[in-house]
């Protein structure tokens, strides 16, 4: 992967752009989160998604009940077993979501320059004149001139089902709006977004708590996507709940930034969260269009410097209905990678899109091409300068491992870890080669049923270590699970044994070849060691 590395600042032959890319064992360093839904919940389609490059499966509880999602998850487990591709689980909360209550689910036509009333009276029937919503405080939240957007859930912007409203007047509990564009509301779920207005609903509601306490615990989720995170306290309250749920105490919380409030409190949220999701769909409504790119670049920079994974959404909306992305979308994916994104999250494209497998494959290919022109040298220097001196012991080891790997043109970095922290720190410095994270579990009695079907054959999802699965959202990080009888800080003999297995696995998968150089980061006793190995025939 590193051997094809180019720099846009250097002269390149234009004809070389047309040369086919060499296949790699890892499709891309950037990870892909796929939302599983009606078009992507069969074993066959999920298997295709995994083979195409999906490494995290997102379960969106705005749609579907727990039983529906459980069926999908069982299919995911079967697909993981058959493809031998690892996949982590992300639960996406509903949060303070405003919805149009259309009990009959019949189509509703709205005509430009006409009027429509938003009412909290959910007993009324939805029509072209009245739209009941699930929020009692709408009249107190808005004022004349405010902008309200209504769109099909996970709207892509290409539908004729999205409508912009402007508040004309407030009458008691109701809000009268001018319709700014003609549209037909048709579909099972429509959400409402009031631009730059605080909605007095809890970020973490009772339904979310129930789903996490039942479905989440049952399935030992790896990531919790906290929708519409507005304050650091939202993350703290969520973590307090997870800490009481035993198996979910290690679940990572990804704060989903969707509005002006989340943007305003971004720095504090980043400190508390394990990762960030930039939800550009709603952000694109809350922010002026010309400001969206600026927030993306600033937020990704902050995440990168903090060493916390950043996920970008809404990149190839048109592939919901088309086999190819637009030119702007293809460039947008590449720019997300160049800006520093760890992962790309696909929503409508895989949930209800016609081409879920092809979408994942296309996004992966674009990411891989963008990674070739990522300026690692500049990024490395910028990160080292930001961290400053004196570095922590672990940060120093991680940066040294990456520097050594670049200098000797290593094909891979192998990192021994129990918590996954050392491997994530190495990935923070964005090496141009893959980082193989050899996760050595800390076993307690009856905590894990262990089985091998060969060296490092990864078993069913439920048997795999949570720290290993959580690396599946970090750019450039690829997990392997070692025999738990060999601790990460054990004797030299057992470390060499585990390293041999890791090297054998790398050779078998094509990541490592004869005469390649490999950088190894491991603990020997109380010391952390970075060493360079040159492989023989």
**Strand order of the biggest β-sheet:** 1-2-3-13-14-15-16-17
Overall geometry: elongated
Instruction: Please provide the count of β strands.
Output: 22
Number of helices: 17
Residue runs with pLDDT of under 50 for 5 or more positions? 444-463
Largest sheet: number of strands, sense, barrel closure: 8 strands, parallel, barrel
Strand share of the residues?
A: 15-25%
Protein described:
With 537 residues, the protein is of the alpha/beta class. The chain has 17 helices and 22 strands. β21 and β22 form a beta hairpin. α5 packs parallel to α7. The protein is elongated and about 80 Å long.
Task: Describe the secondary-structure layout.
Elements: E1 31-35, H1 43-52, E2 54-60, H2 66-83, E3 88-92, E4 98-100, E5 108-110, E6 115-119, E7 130-132, H3 138-141, E8 147-152, E9 163-171, E10 174-179, E11 183-185, E12 190-194, H4 206-219, E13 223-226, H5 232-243, E14 252-257, H6 260-264, H7 266-272, E15 275-278, H8 280-286, H9 289-306, E16 310-313, H10 327-339, E17 343-346, H11 348-351, H12 356-372, H13 376-387, H14 393-407, E18 412-417, H15 421-428, E19 435-439, H16 466-469, E20 477-481, H17 492-509, E21 517-524, E22 527-534
Helix pairs in contact: 1-2, 1-12, 5-7, 7-9, 10-12, 14-15
